[in-house]
TrEMBL record:
GO BP term, pick one: regulatory ncRNA-mediated gene silencing
Keyword field contains Nucleus: yes
Compartments, record wording: Cytoplasm; Nucleus
Name of the protein this chain belongs to: CCR4-NOT transcription complex subunit 11
Example of a GO cellular component annotation carried by this entry: cytoplasm
UniProt keyword list: Cytoplasm, Nucleus, RNA-mediated gene silencing, Transcription, Transcription regulation
């Protein structure tokens, strides 16, 4: 076996299992036997072979799904320099680079191993240990992903790409301290730049300890189509409870935003969106006509020629008539 490469030894191991007609579960048992024999291995070459097989047997899976990952990580605290470097190759996924080397070559000249750093990266090791604990002990363990944190921090500064949005969509964002990564003064920009992300996290932010700051930031910035759609989404679809004071101020600002725009397509879109927004809140009983009738009536009279406003005016008139009756 001295002249066999790591991969040749691995293939011999697989061939032996096939001869014994081992099923996948029995293959795992055979790997467990190797694991149990690791400490008893007489030479470092044999120990490296065991590590190679335990990794290669599951190399087609994400590293955190390798059933022996916990063993690899714990070995870092009690192993030789070569073994530590070898485990580093496992953590970085570069172990395939030594497939055609023999164990003796590696032990004689460790410098031929690929350069690694992750076995020295305490943060990376800690995350992997958390993933192992989540898989084995507690599925409720929360693991914060640096990439997710970075994307959340950038969302108020630039539009995220489709792939970046997909990454965020697959993550359970409620596990993250969102108010740490999205500050109140950044929220209006995030809403305008990344509306779909805003749909997902706005209600979470408004349930944080910075609720009033986020609401004030929304009121302090110009009302946009994206802002109206986002507030509508959390009120109607997410059933987020917002104070009537905020809603009243927001509706007043929305109406005022229409008055401040120059006549044209942009203004028409804003008016239609505001009318649709107010009508939906009335229909959902989120606001009461008695508190808004004067404002709504004045808004409708000002923009009666724009499609969509007539429907709101009729709704307002009908509700006002019912109230008077």
């Amino acid at each position: 076996m001295e002249n066999l490469t790591f991969e040749e030894i691995h293939q011999q191991f697989l061939l032996q299992q096939q001869k014994q007609k081992q099923q996948q579960q029995q293959l795992f048992i055979s790997c467990c036997s190797l694991f149990l024999n690791f400490e008893c291995a007489k030479t470092e070459e044999n120990r490296l072979v065991i590590l190679y097989i335990l990794y290669s047997q599951y190399a087609n899976l994400p590293l955190e799904q390798n059933p022996f990952l916990d063993f690899f990580l714990n070995l870092l605290d009690n192993c030789t320099v070569i073994e530590r470097h070898f485990v580093g190759c496992i953590l970085e996924g570069t172990l395939s680079g030594i497939a055609n080397l023999t164990p003796q070559e590696v032990c004689t000249n460790p410098s031929i191993l690929p350069t690694t750093t992750k076995e020295k990266d305490n943060k990376h090791i800690a995350i992997l240990k958390l993933k192992v604990a989540k898989l084995i002990d507690d599925p409720n363990i929360v693991i914060l992903d640096d990439q997710i944190i970075q994307l959340l921090s950038m969302a108020g500064k630039r539009p995220l790409t489709l792939s970046e949005n997909e990454i965020l969509r697959k993550e359970k964002l409620s596990d993250y301290p969102l108010s740490t990564y999205v500050l109140p003064n950044e929220l209006p920009a995030l809403i305008n730049l990344n509306q779909f992300l805003a749909f997902d996290i706005l209600s979470l932010l408004l349930n944080s300890d910075k609720t009033e700051e986020y609401l004030q930031a929304i009121l302090d910035h110009p009302i946009t189509l994206q802002s109206i759609e986002s507030i509508h989404h959390i009120l109607v679809h997410k059933k987020t409870s917002l104070s009537q004071d905020f809603i009243h101020y927001y509706i007043s600002n929305s109406i005022r935003s229409c008055d401040q725009l120059e006549d044209g397509l942009i203004k028409d879109k804003q008016v239609k969106q505001v009318a649709k927004f107010i009508q939906s809140l009335l229909e959902q009983d989120i606001i009461s006509m008695t508190e808004y009738f004067v404002e709504i009536q004045a808004f409708c009279v000002s923009y009666m020629k724009i499609k969509g406003v007539v429907q709101l005016f009729r709704l307002a008139s009908n509700e006002a008539r019912q109230i008077n009756e």
